């Protein structure tokens, strides 16, 4: 948490060294994109559970204020892609052959990585600095090392992570030298990763997708039974998309379109909630939580049925944003009685949880705002470090409807629109969002990890800022709830009192508890205080301000 005076530039990120790297770039005169790219590469070194070169992500920005061409709202999709040899039944077949975890653990779980292409494309398209300026800080952290953080050490030392990671020789060499998790406080140097970063500095996108690094990936795929080919890597392209736009109490929010479900769900939930009167005193009341849960339930029903990669399926965005349909869905909400999810869908999965994705928010001195969420999916992705490169691969293939009818890592039961197909991107919940005020200035930059809880968390922080009149700090720290239609249960953070939970039970909700949701990184303007960066106390990040 931070509550310092206004600085013209602010970075909020889940790891302090990476936040400092971004602040340095701003101090050197870089814009918010330069800083975001530098933070992205730094997190790949300092926060290996989620920061990455071998994963993917989304960037949403309101940028261009320093240029003559003027402001624009942009969205860059650098999500992983299914390899060309992927098939809809590949994980069902793997399960029949005894590999129940094939979409999560090991080589077959990895999609073609998008992060390097995404970051370098953002820099070339909208940044002002060169690759060496923004990537070298990460390279130095990898080459010279940094003190292993408590957070990463604890994750590595956890028994299930440890036993899964140590199955892969290169992973064990990087993270378990001598068989033990790199100790907290010890100097953690990553020589191979430094060399990979140097190659990317020198060669740009081909430094990862062509040549030596690509060869290492393909050789490792063949060795470990994965599918990513030379052609898959050469063919990978980030895609610039049009952000989803939706009105807020004062202003307009921009968030990620499919293949993220974030923007559509946020737009749907906001539109439905607009039909209800809410006042600040409702915050943390059972009545408000019920209303939010019902709105969430309705939107997730659509998410799981309609959404997928828009380059492969028609997501019917017109239908999903149709004001009449949303009004009728909102009208079906009863004030103190649940609507069973079975009215929308049928199966009842159980929830499994995992925590690792990471979000960072940047505002520069020009007032540009950049919001990036990036992930390997589960902690440390598929747990495979590509030998000779120092980076981990993702397990993003599990975000597809990997085994139809069965819940994924996040308990989501998804439909045919999100079936695996060659070259297709798995549906995501990552929701990097930028909120503009009615004058078009950046009012807030928002985002968090948390699988499907990303969407509902961003929704609640937006609500706190725009309709409940909460401060940036309280919007983030306020207890969070989550409903994703299936399983038909309302998840409450532990800090919500049991008396509130009991009231919600009388409305018909089945209550589940979770200790904490998310690791929010918010920058927002607060009346009389200027820009305020808020790093979620649930995580271990930092806010960095610049005075120029
Ligand atoms: O794209 C998605 O929705 C997931 N792969 C995000 C995973 C995630 O947030 C895990 N961290 N808590």
Kindly describe this structure.
This protein has 548 residues and is α+β, with helices and mostly antiparallel strands. The chain is 35% helix and 16% strand. It has 19 helices and 18 strands. It has helices at residues 16-27, 32-46, 90-96, 115-126, 131-144, 150-157, 159-165, 169-175, 191-203, 206-209, 212-224, 230-235, 262-273, 286-306, 317-320, 323-331, 453-466, 472-477, 498-506, and strands at residues 9-13, 56-63, 72-78, 146-147, 187-188, 239-241, 244-248, 251-255, 357-363, 369-375, 433-436, 442-446, 481-482, 490-493, 511-514, 521-526, 530-535, 542-546. The strands form four sheets. The chain has a seven-stranded antiparallel beta sheet with strand order 6-3-2-10-9-1-18, with helices on one face. The chain has a six-stranded antiparallel beta sheet with strand order 7-8-11-12-16-17. Helix 5 (131-144) packs antiparallel against helix 9 and helix 13 packs across helix 16. Residues 1-6 and 346-354 have low confidence and may be disordered. 6-diazenyl-5-OXO-L-norleucine is lined by residues 354-357, 375, 377, 396, 399, 428-430, 449-451, 454. 6-diazenyl-5-OXO-L-norleucine (DON) is lined by residues 354-357, 375, 377, 396, 399, 428-430, 449-451, 454.
Brief account:
By secondary structure, the protein is α+β, with helices and mostly antiparallel strands. The chain contains 19 helices and 18 strands.
């Amino acid at each position: 948490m931070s509550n310092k005076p206004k600085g013209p530039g602010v970075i909020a990120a889940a790891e302090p060294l990476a936040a400092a790297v971004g602040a340095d770039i701003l101090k050197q005169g870089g814009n918010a994109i330069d800083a975001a790219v530098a933070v992205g590469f730094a997190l790949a070194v300092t926060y290996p559970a989620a920061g990455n070169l071998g994963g993917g992500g989304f960037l949403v920005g309101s940028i261009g204020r320093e240029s003559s061409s003027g402001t624009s709202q942009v969205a860059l999709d650098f999500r992983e892609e299914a390899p060309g040899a992927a098939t809809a039944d590949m994980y069902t077949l793997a399960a029949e052959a005894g590999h129940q975890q094939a979409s999560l653990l090991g080589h077959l779980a990895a999609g073609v990585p998008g992060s390097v292409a995404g970051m370098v494309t953002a820099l070339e398209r909208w940044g002002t600095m060169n690759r060496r300026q923004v990537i070298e800080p990460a390279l130095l952290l990898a080459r010279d090392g940094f003190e292993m953080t408590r957070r990463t050490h604890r994750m590595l030392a956890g028994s299930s992570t440890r036993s899964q990671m140590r199955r892969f020789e290169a992973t064990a060499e990087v993270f378990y030298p001598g068989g033990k998790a790199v100790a907290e406080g010890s100097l953690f140097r990553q020589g191979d990763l430094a060399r990979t970063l140097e190659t990317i500095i020198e060669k740009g996108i081909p430094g990862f997708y062509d040549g030596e690094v690509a060869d290492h990936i393909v050789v490792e795929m063949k060795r470990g039974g994965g599918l990513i080919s030379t052609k898959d890597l050469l063919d990978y392209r980030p895609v610039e998309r049009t952000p989803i736009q939706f009105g807020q109490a004062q202003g307009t929010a921009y968030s990620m379109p499919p293949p993220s479900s974030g923007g559509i769900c946020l737009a749907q939930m906001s539109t439905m909630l607009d039909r209800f009167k809410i006042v600040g005193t409702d915050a943390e009341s059972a009545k408000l939580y019920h209303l939010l849960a019902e709105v969430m339930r309705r939107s997730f029903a659509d998410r799981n049925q309609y959404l997928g990669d828009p380059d492969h399926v028609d997501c019917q965005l017109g239908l999903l944003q149709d004001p009449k349909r949303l009004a009728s869905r909102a009208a079906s909400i009863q004030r103190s009685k649940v609507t069973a999810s079975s009215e929308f869908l049928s199966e009842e999965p159980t929830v499994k949880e995992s925590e690792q994705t990471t979000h960072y928010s940047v505002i520069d001195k020009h007032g540009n705002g950049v919001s990036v969420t990036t992930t390997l999916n589960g902690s440390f992705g598929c747990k495979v470090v590509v030998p000779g490169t120092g980076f981990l691969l993702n397990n993003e293939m599990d975000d597809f409807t990997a085994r139809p009818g069965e819940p994924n890592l996040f308990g989501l039961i998804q439909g045919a629109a999100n079936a695996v197909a060659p070259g297709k991107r798995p549906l995501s919940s990552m929701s990097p969002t930028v909120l503009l005020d009615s004058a078009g200035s950046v009012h807030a930059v928002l985002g968090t990890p948390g699988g499907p809880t990303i969407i509902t968390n961003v929704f609640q922080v937006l609500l706190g800022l725009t309709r409940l009149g909460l401060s940036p700090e309280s919007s983030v720290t306020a207890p969070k709830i989550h409903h994703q239609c299936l399983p038909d249960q309302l998840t409450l953070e532990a800090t919500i009192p049991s008396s509130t939970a009991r009231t919600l039970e009388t409305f018909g909700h089945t209550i589940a508890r979770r200790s904490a949701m998310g690791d929010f990184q918010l920058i927002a303007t607060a009346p009389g205080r200027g820009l305020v960066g808020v790093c979620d106390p649930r995580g271990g990040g930092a806010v960095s301000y610049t005075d120029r």
